[in-house]
Amino acid sequence: MDARDARGVRHARHWDRLADRYDEVSAGVERRFLAASRPWVAGRARGRVLEVGVGTGANLPFYPAGVELVCLERSAPMLEQARRRAAAVDRPATFVLGDAGALAVDDASVDTVVSTFTLCCVPDLEAALAEMVRVLRPGGALLLADHVASDHWWVRAPQALVDAVTVPLAGEHLGRRPAARLAALGLEVVESRRTTLGLIERVHARQPG
Length: 209
What we know:
This protein is 36% helix and 23% strand. It is an alpha/beta fold.
């Protein structure tokens, strides 16, 4: 196993260990910074929906009735938490253990791809975005929310310092900005919003066609 693979295994174990107490540990951050983005994103989903990085299932209460929901997660303990939440909120869904960088989903087979506060942690951001675009049908929606590199320089500087700790520890990047890569992948941005000093970005993008 090379160094990169070893880091990936270490990061995966970090999230596995955290799964049972993730909601408790992150409750303050969730309430202050993340929660408002979830209905904005999940509420726009339509048709056959793939959520990439479902985590413990925090988006599940906000999906419209009638969507056909498939939830993907690379951490088995996190996926189990999401299953429990789906049962608690009576949200029918299919749960799949898998990798955002190699989706086991047919080309152009999904109406909506959702990912919230996940692309900061995937090992290969470019591969994950390319896979999301690949599985979208023409006219399909890519709906994202994440903590990103701020558009204020005086916020980006401390973000870089935090990255020096969180990237080696858990593979979590504060300085990424997935939206900046969407045009190169052929998507058009329908709407985007930044909040919280530019730290949180919500994006609704569309596959042409």
